[in-house]
Design a protein that fits this description.
mainly alpha, 6 helices, 132 residues
């Protein structure tokens, strides 16, 4: 889901799984915060240069301050537009415990979609067989 829809933040039931996808800020915010530059500069600042990240962060803050005290974060990469290797390297250097890194990398997703350890090991074994 985008962080806002038509300029309004969405209210979600607690515990509902969601995917926050970056999006540009509402047009009023773009004009007030990123306007006054050449169109290309405004577009880049309000999007991938800064605005996407701020919009997503604001939505996460709204979730936490609105009562979802322990949102589950999951790892993802913007493949094929971004390198999975670079995303993995980023995850490896994030200053969190090994247990939290494991949850972010795969544990939270496994809990969300109810993947058992046996299923995960079976998928790994099948993958390794395909490579030999």
């Amino acid at each position: 889901m985008k962080t806002h829809s038509f300029g309004r933040f969405l209210k979600l039931p607690l515990g509902a799984p969601i995917y926050l996808h970056r999006t540009k800020p509402p047009i009023d915010v773009i004009e007030a915060s990123y306007g006054g530059f050449a169109p290309f500069v405004t577009d880049m600042l309000s999007g991938p240069g800064f605005g996407w990240h701020i919009e997503t962060a604001v939505h996460v803050l709204r979730m936490v301050l609105g009562g979802d005290r322990f949102p589950r974060f999951m790892f993802s990469a913007d493949y094929p537009y971004a390198s999975i290797d670079a995303a993995r390297a980023f995850l490896e250097q994030v200053p969190v415990t090994a247990a939290d890194r494991s949850l972010i990398a795969h544990g939270n997703a496994e809990k969300l979609v109810k993947i058992s350890a046996e299923l995960r090991l079976g998928a790994l074994a099948a993958y390794l067989r395909s490579k030999s």
